[in-house]
Amino acid sequence: MLLIILGILDLLSAAILGLLFFGIPMKALIIGGAIYLGAKGLIFFGDFASILDLIIALFLVASLIITLPKLLFVVLAIVLIQKAIFSFAS
Hints:
mainly alpha
């Protein structure tokens, strides 16, 4: 059950990256997504997926300060969607 909840939250974080791709910066959602991914990355620290969570959280915070390339948002969203699918499958 916990994996399904984390998968849904990963999909919501991917949706936040999709909003950023289309130029819709919602600061509260970005901060919430960054806190979620950062906390999940620190709690489950030690595997590659958690390091990816921390990196994506850093990029979300950086998107509040600077303009990042749109391709980066697509790649990071694909990574989160893949993680969500794997969490639904297990």
